[in-house]
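sorry to bug you again but im stuck and you know this stuff better than me. what follows is a protein written twice so to speak, once as letters and once as structure tokens for the fold. id like you to explain what the token line says about the fold, in plain words if possible. anything you notice is useful, everything is just below.
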Amino acid sequence: MAKLVLHYFLVIGILFFIASCAAIKYETYPDIDHVIASWYGHDFHGKPTASGEIFDMYAMTCAHRKYPFGTKLRVTNPSNNKKAYCTVNDRGPFVSGRDIDLSYAVAKEIGLMGLGVGRVKVEYLGKDTSYIREVKYLSDTGPFTVQVGSFRDLSNAARLKKSLELNYGGVYITEAEIYGNIYYRVRIGKYYMRDDVCRLAKTLADEGYSVFVTGYEEKI
């Protein structure tokens, strides 16, 4: 009987730990929304997006402040009724009053090129779950932090930091030298409890960021 009770509490404890690591607040999004769109192209072509993918101005993609990476959207220009389908793989826009940044290809498809900025109808079509990532753990002792990216180019790290700051606080950059090369690491937070950092890392991974939990280092 004692062994049965012990087994029961052991199972309950394991389930509680798993639940604490998997607890995520899922947001709901409108099926149809009318927003202000802009577009981006040459200045960012070939540079990493917030999701880690390399931005291709000729691909059917877009940047949004909230939608998880992999979100599928149909964008319609109400002035001419032209439609295009695109996938969220970046964060932005960073200009006040704008809600979505379309790639050059999407903007061209719906006739937004000349205007540069305009009102569009956005329809939520679901999410490509292949963008969901697994969390990796490189440290078992606190304080902890979550690393979201590492770059040789400081400007790429600064761009990711700016993207993360749209939705998260405590984003910072550290500098590390590895085999004579300098890397700029983008990280979030300083946590003493594993459960707390676990929840943040899981939320980021479900959003589409490639993350791992590691030991905290001082900011640069």
